[in-house]
C-alpha cells in the first residue's frame, strides 16, 4: 500500500515561494544597533529600585536584554538556526570579554599604582634601616630569583623523569599509585607545603629555622606536580609512529626517548615548566612560614631569612609604616616587578622552545 503524500500544485508553489534559511536576507546592522541601544536603555532602568548606579547590574541586564532581542529579531527574519547561532556567538564574545576586561583592569591598576616607585632606587636599595619613605625591593628581587631558581632546579628534573616513567614505562600498580599521588599533590594548599618545609628544616636545624632553601623546598612541592602533568600530556601527544619508526631502525628505547620523543615535545614541556614557575613565583603563605622576612639582601639560601617580591608586597600592606602611602607604593611596585618577571619568563620560554624544536616542526 502506497502511503506517500502527493503534493498538489498550490502546495508546491507555496513551498517554492518560501525562502529557506540560507536564502533569507541577513539581519541588518541598523537593527542590531537599535537592539543594542534598546538593551542599554532598558538596563539603565535597574537604577530605579535602588536610586544608585550599579555598573555590574547595568551590564548584566543589558546583556540579557540584548541577547533576547537579537534572538527574536533574527528568528523572525533569518530563521531559528541563524538566531541560535547569533546568540551563541554573542555568548562567546561575552565570555571573552568577561575574561579580558578584568585582566586589563588588573594590569592597568598595577601599572598605574606601581609606577609611583618604579625608579632606580627601588631596584638598587633594600629596606635596611628604612622606616618611612625611601627604600626599595632589591633584596626581594634577589630573594625571588634565588628561591624560585632553586625550586626550579629541584622540581624540573624530578617532574620530567616521573612523567617519562608514567608515559613510557609505567603500566602497573606503581604507576597508578604515582598518578594518584600526583593528583593529591596538585590540590595541596600552599600553606601546607610551607608548614612541611618548615617542619623538615626544624628537624635538622632546630626551632625557628628559616632560610631561602626552606622556601625553595616549599615551592618545589607545589611546582613538581604541575611539571609532571604538563610533561605527561605533552609526551602523550607525540605520535606513536615516531617511536615505532625509531624501534624499527634498532634504536634502544632510552635513546628513542632522548633523541626522538623529548625533542618533539620540547616546546610544550618548556611551556609547562614556565606555567609551573609562574604558579609558584607569586606564592606568599609558604614563604612567610619557611623563608621569613628580611630587610636586607641575603645571597646565602642556606642560612638566614630571605624575602621575595610577593612577601614584600604583603608586608608593605600589612605594616606600611609612616607615612602609609610610602609602604603602599612599594607594595604596588613589587607587584609590578613580579608581573614583569613572569612576562619575561614566558617570552624566554617561547624563544627557547623555538630554538630547540625540531626543524620539521617549526
Entry keywords:
mainly alpha, 15 helices, single chain, 362 residues
Account of the 3D structure:
The termini are far apart. About 75% of the residues lie in helices and about 0% in strands. It has about 350 residues and is mainly alpha-helical. The chain is flat, with a radius of gyration of 29 Å. The protein has helices at about 10-15, 30-45, 45-50, 55-75, 80-115, 120-125, 140-170, 175-185, 190-205, 210-235, 240-250, 255-280, 285-290, 310-320, 325-355. It has 15 helices and no strands. The mean pLDDT is about 85. Helix 5 crosses helix 15.
Task: Summarize the entry for a quick read.
With 362 residues, this protein is mainly alpha-helical.
Coarse morphology = flat
Q: How would you classify the quaternary structure?
A: single chain
Number of strands: 0
Overall helicity: over 70%
Regions with little confidence, pLDDT below 50 for 5+ residues:
none
Mean pLDDT: 85
Q: What portion of the residues fall into strands of 2 or more residues?
A: under 5%
Give me the secondary-structure category: mainly alpha
Largest sheet: none
Order of helices and strands: HHHHHHHHHHHHHHH
Alpha-carbon Rg, integer:
29 Å
End-to-end separation: 65 Å
The helix tally amounts to 15
Amino acid at each position: 500500500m502506497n502511503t506517500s503524500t502527493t503534493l498538489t500544485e498550490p502546495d508546491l508553489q507555496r513551498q517554492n515561494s518560501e525562502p529557506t534559511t540560507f536564502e533569507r536576507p541577513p539581519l541588518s546592522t541598523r537593527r542590531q544597533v537599535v537592539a543594542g541601544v534598546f538593551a542599554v536603555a532598558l538596563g539603565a532602568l535597574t537604577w530605579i529600585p535602588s536610586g544608585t548606579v550599579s555598573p555590574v547590574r547595568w551590564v548584566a541586564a543589558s546583556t540579557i536584554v540584548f541577547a533576547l532581542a537579537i534572538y527574536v529579531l533574527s528568528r523572525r527574519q533569518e530563521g531559528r538556526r541563524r538566531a541560535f547561532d547569533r546568540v551563541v556567538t554573542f555568548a562567546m564574545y561575552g565570555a571573552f570579554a568577561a575574561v579580558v576586561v578584568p585582566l586589563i583592569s588588573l594590569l592597568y591598576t598595577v601599572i598605574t599604582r606601581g609606577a609611583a616607585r618604579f625608579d632606580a632606587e627601588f631596584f638598587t636599595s633594600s629596606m635596611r634601616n628604612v622606616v618611612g619613605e625611601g627604600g626599595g625591593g632589591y633584596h626581594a628581587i634577589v630573594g625571588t630569583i634565588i628561591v624560585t631558581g632553586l625550586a626550579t632546579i629541584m622540581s624540573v628534573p624530578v617532574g620530567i623523569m616521573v612523567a617519562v616513567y608514567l608515559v613510557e614505562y609505567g603500566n602497573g600498580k606503581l604507576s597508578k599509585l604515582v598518578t594518584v599521588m600526583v593528583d593529591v599533590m596538585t590540590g595541596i594548599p600552599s600553606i601546607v607545603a610551607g608548614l612541611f618545609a618548615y617542619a623538615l628544616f626544624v628537624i635538622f636545624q632546630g626551632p625557628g629555622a628559616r632560610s631561602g632553601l626552606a622556601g625553595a623546598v616549599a615551592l618545589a612541592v607545589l611546582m613538581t606536580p604541575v611539571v609532571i602533568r604538563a610533561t605527561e600530556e605533552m609526551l602523550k601527544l607525540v605520535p606513536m609512529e615516531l617511536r615505532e619508526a625509531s624501534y624499527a631502525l634498532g634504536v634502544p628505547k632510552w635513546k628513542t626517548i632522548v633523541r626522538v620523543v623529548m625533542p618533539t615535545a620540547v616546546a610544550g614541556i618548556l611551556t609547562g615548566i614556565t606555567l609551573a614557575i609562574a604558579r609558584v613565583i607569586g606564592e606568599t603563605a609558604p614563604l612567610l612560614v619557611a623563608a621569613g622576612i628580611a630587610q636586607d639582601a641575603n645571597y646565602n639560601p642556606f642560612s638566614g631569612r630571605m624575602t621575595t617580591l610577593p612577601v614584600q608586597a604583603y608586608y608593605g600592606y600589612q605594616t606600611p609604616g609612616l607615612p602609609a602611602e610610602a609602604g603602599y607604593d612599594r607594595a604596588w611596585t613589587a607587584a609590578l616587578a613580579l608581573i614583569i618577571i613572569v612576562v619575561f619568563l614566558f617570552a624566554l620560554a617561547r624563544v627557547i622552545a623555538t630554538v630547540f624544536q625540531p626543524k620539521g616542526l617549526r
